[in-house]
Design goal:
The strands form 3 sheets. Strands 5-7-6 form a 3-stranded antiparallel sheet. Strands 1-2 form a two-stranded antiparallel ribbon. The protein is elongated, with a radius of gyration of 20 Å. It has 9 helices and 7 strands; from the N terminus they run ααααββααββαβααββ.
């Protein structure tokens, strides 16, 4: 995991407080709620995101801090490592893509529509404007990005980035590089 993604997980107050409670020994959502003073639903939501991000794990029904997450992030992304080429010239868009993509694959579909749109606009660049693709080819191309290719296909159509008729798809939106 990227160090900035770890920081992002802890940048939200409820997640930071919940993570601190887990580090200090709280092992259930009830214990975390008691230690933090947060509402139960907020604790459950925070714990879900922390587990999804790899900062906590559930062991024998109790949540515990994944102590190696920070060391792994630093080792993996040390200053001596080769810098990654930006995924987009725009820094804000590149940051969103870095948060959700690893080694050319989507690791998680963003829940926020704006971030999801950025990811989808990046993915749709694999489709040539003016070319018609059978559904089987679209599925194969999207499977490279993410195992749940049907979800991405649906989002691309819903966001008017791909159009479809009779199981044939074509690119109908997104940015086109004219250079």
């Amino acid at each position: 995991m990227q160090p900035d993604a770890l920081c992002g997980l802890l940048a939200e107050s409820d997640r930071l407080r919940s993570y601190a409670a887990v580090v200090l020994g709280a092992g259930t959502p009830g214990e975390v709620a008691a230690a933090t003073g947060l509402a139960g639903r907020d604790v459950v939501k925070a714990l879900f995101r922390l587990e999804e991000g790899g900062l906590i794990v559930t062991v024998n029904g109790r949540v515990v801090a994944a102590s190696g997450a920070f060391k792994d992030a630093i080792r993996e992304h040390s200053p001596g490592s080769i810098p990654e080429e930006p995924l987009d010239p725009d820094q804000e868009r590149a940051a969103v893509l870095r948060a959700f993509m690893r080694e050319g694959r989507l690791v998680q579909m963003p829940a926020a529509r704006g971030k999801r749109r950025i990811v989808l606009e990046h993915i749709v660049t694999d489709f040539e404007p003016g070319v018609r693709y059978p559904e089987r080819a679209v599925n194969a191309m999207l499977r490279i990005w993410y195992d749940d290719y049907a979800t991405i296909r649906r989002y691309l159509v819903d966001e008017d980035l791909l159009s479809r008729e009779n199981n044939v798809y074509w690119r109908s939106g997104g940015y086109v590089d004219t250079a």
